[in-house]
Write a structure and sequence with these properties.
Length: 381
């Protein structure tokens, strides 16, 4: 009998049910197959991992990847299909490994990262929001921007030598900014819901490079010509891919693909300026949101509010200095954050309270805001 032993999160030792003879035999056979496939992968690792020298052509690398993709995918599926009793609890590193094995043939990413501990570089299914710190932003985004630039140069070289099918080209273009877009989205979401001065500085530092990369992709003449070539022959092209082609060519035109170099440079400068203005605008709104709080001591004024809203208002009051506050007796503090704002607007019986919090909300970061209510966005608009 094989009895895997594991330790629970509480430190308790638990034992799984003994493996039957049939299950054990299946595990042994699966392990044998996995070993043979792993040996096959390792023998061809130089081609598979896209780490060969500069003398190897991109076409040969793509061929090697396509050749290896099926056995690698099968190998990746073995743990979940045949080894449930022996498979350890998934970690970020393991999830990333299996995801990379399942990646489409032709997808090649940089092998080195600034830090294996950076949650913004995680390839797991879900973003690791709770682990992200402001100090992670600059190294992770800088790394991903450079990775995307390298992949852009590789793709431009390939499409200059050969015509790629529309579906393959669509996938390759999507991959150019996929990892960066995912991590950049996490950063901007956290900036909106958990704003700090350190996070703002980190975003300001890397935002120009992100905008510059997006413009370089949008204004890539080799890729635009590749789209034009692919559009010349639409035999076998699905409706979805045809729509992607149309939209990509339209977006390139709107990004100034037809402009001369001087005008393209001017267009990029305008985009950088627009991105900075947009960031300043959102910062002012965030400051205006944080600047307003309404403290209530009269229980009659919170009539109609659900218990959850009163509990949140009491917790906010405690955080702001009213240590003796309770949901039942108050005092209560309401803010312009959504979870605090919306229950007041929906359920509060006190009309003046609803008006006060509504006016504070709609006049944030404006010339109509109360004193100390954040920066004024009038000039930015």
């Amino acid at each position: 009998h094989c009895v895997p032993v594991c330790t629970t999160q509480r430190g308790e030792v638990s034992r799984q049910k003994p493996l039957t003879t049939v299950r054990m035999a299946r595990c042994v056979l699966s392990l044998g197959a996995a070993t043979l496939l792993l040996a096959f992968v390792l023998l061809n690792a130089q081609s598979v991992l896209c780490l060969s020298g500069p003398d190897n052509s991109s076409a040969s690398k793509a061929s090697a990847l396509a050749f290896m993709h099926k056995p690698m995918t099968f190998l990746a599926s073995l743990p979940s299909k045949f080894l449930p009793a022996l498979r350890p609890a998934p970690t970020t590193a393991r999830v990333g490994f299996w995801n990379r094995l399942r990646a489409p043939a032709g997808a090649c990413r940089m092998s080195s990262a600034p830090s294996a501990e950076n949650p913004l570089l995680s390839e797991g299914l879900f973003p690791l929001y709770s682990s992200v710190k402001a100090s992670h932003v600059v190294p992770a985004i800088t790394h991903l921007v450079q990775e995307s630039r390298d992949n852009l140069a590789t793709l431009e070289g390939e499409v200059a030598k050969a015509t790629l099918p529309a579906a393959e080209l669509a996938g390759r273009v999507e991959q150019l900014s996929d990892r960066l877009g995912r991590s950049w989205g996490v950063v901007n979401h956290l900036k909106g819901v958990q704003d700090t001065e350190e996070l703002r500085k980190a975003v300001d530092e890397v935002q120009p490079s992100v905008v510059s990369l997006s413009m370089d992709i949008a204004q890539s003449l080799p890729i635009y010509k590749a789209w034009e070539k692919a559009a010349e022959n639409k035999d076998g092209v699905s409706e979805a891919v045809d729509l992607i082609m149309t939209n990509e060519m339209r977006d390139a035109q709107l990004a100034g693909i037809a402009l001369d170099d001087t005008k393209k440079g001017e267009f990029k400068e305008l985009q950088q300026r627009l991105a900075q203005l947009s960031t300043n605008f959102s910062n002012n709104v965030l400051d205006g949101t944080k600047a307003v709080s309404i403290r209530i001591t009269d229980k009659a004024r919170v009539g109609g509010l659900p218990e959850s809203a009163l509990a949140l208002a009491s917790a906010t009051a405690v955080r702001k200095g009213d240590e003796d506050s309770t949901p039942e007796a108050g005092p209560w503090v309401f803010t312009l954050d959504g979870p605090s704002l919306m229950p007041v607007l929906q359920y509060a019986d006190d009309r003046p309270l609803r008006e006060e919090i509504y006016r504070a909300h709609v006049t944030r970061a404006s010339d109509q805001a109360a004193p100390g209510g954040g920066g004024d966005n009038t000039a930015l608009i």
